[in-house]
Design goal:
The chain has 228 residues and is of the alpha/beta class. The protein is globular, with a radius of gyration of 17 Å. The mean pLDDT is 93. The protein has a five-stranded parallel sheet with strand order 2-6-1-7-8, with helices on both faces. Strands 3-4-5 form a three-stranded antiparallel sheet, with helices on one face. It has nine helices and eight strands. The longest helix is centred in the middle third of the chain and has 17 residues. Helix 7 packs across helix 8. Bound molecules: adenosine-5'-diphosphate (ADP) and deoxycytidine diphosphate. The site of deoxycytidine diphosphate (YYY) has 18 residues, from helix 2, helix 4 and helix 8. GO terms for molecular function: ATP binding; CMP kinase activity; dCMP kinase activity.
């Protein structure tokens, strides 16, 4: 396979995508990775795995949460066509998408020692991606990989994001629960990651009235002329 590199520095291409819940980060990032032959890293899934462990062990309070999650062994797949995640050997690929985890994850993602440990691991995974990688989350363009050649903030109106999540959950959660998982979670998450406004050099894409394919096209076009 052809290696996608930044021609000026020969660094493997890193595409960083941040944005609020339901803006389309995961679907778009997977699509871009598949089209460009890059690896894919879902950093939100790592925080979700931490939240799964906290629920499984019935832990509470920042100290207990930090001790357990920082000591845990999180393994994550980076093939965009075959996503999986394990924590301490347990496969939690499906379990981390349950509404109870979506509801609880911000309490884990706002514990700073947890963030520090997961950010270190995310940087290692990026450094290991010799073919280049698309990384999505809340703090990728600003903290995890601010030197990424392509940096995107993907946004969409709250109504569109809530409607997308509701459709995805297909009745598994009420409108009030989905609204909490999207709006309240963004509010909590934005206390530790700056994803509500684009940092300098970050391209904003509003997906409210764009189809998934159009968003993927726009990001792939940016990748054709990356920032050095
Ligand atoms: N541009 C788009 N237009 C319409 N629906 C979209 C678009 N992008 C993503 N979706 C759908 O919205 C839902 C949430 O997308 P997802 O990629 O999980 O968002 P995020 O990772 O930002 O939370 C999914 O069901 C996905 O198929
Ligand atoms: N880089 C990241 C990625 C996710 N998070 C937090 C914020 C979210 O509430 C959770 C789960 O992220 P995820 O991207 O799976 O969430 P949604 O797809 O938007 O529902 O993790 C974070 O703090 N930093």
């Amino acid at each position: 396979m052809v290696t996608v590199t930044d021609v000026q520095t020969e660094r493997p291409l890193v595409v960083a995508i941040d944005g609020p819940s339901g803006s389309g980060k995961s679907s778009t990032a997977r699509g871009v990775a598949e089209r460009l032959g890059l690896a894919y890293l879902d950093t939100g899934a790592m925080y979700r795995a931490g939240a799964w462990l906290v629920a499984d062990q019935n832990l509470s309070g920042p100290q207990e949460i930090a001790e357990a999650v920082c000591a845990a062994d999180i393994e994550i797949g980076t093939d965009p066509g075959d996503f999986w995640i394990r924590i301490d050997g347990t496969d939690v690929t499906t379990a981390i998408r349950e509404p109870r985890i979506s509801q609880a994850v911000s309490a884990v993602a706002t514990v700073q020692p947890v963030r520090d440990a997961l950010i270190d691991q995310q940087r290692e995974l990026i450094a290991d991606a010799e073919r280049g990688i698309v990384v999505e989350g809340r703090d990728i363009t600003t903290v995890v990989a601010p030197d990424a050649q392509v940096r995107v903030l993907l946004v969409a109106d709250p109504q569109a994001r809530i409607a997308r999540r509701e459709a995805e959950l297909a009745g598994a959660a009420s409108t009030a629960e989905v609204t909490d998982q999207v709006i309240r979670r963004d509010r909590d998450d934005s206390t530790v990651a700056a994803f509500t406004e684009a940092a300098e050099g970050v391209t904003v894409i509003d997906s409210t009235h764009l189809g998934l394919a159009e968003v993927i096209d726009q990001i792939c076009s940016l990748a054709e002329k990356p920032t050095p």
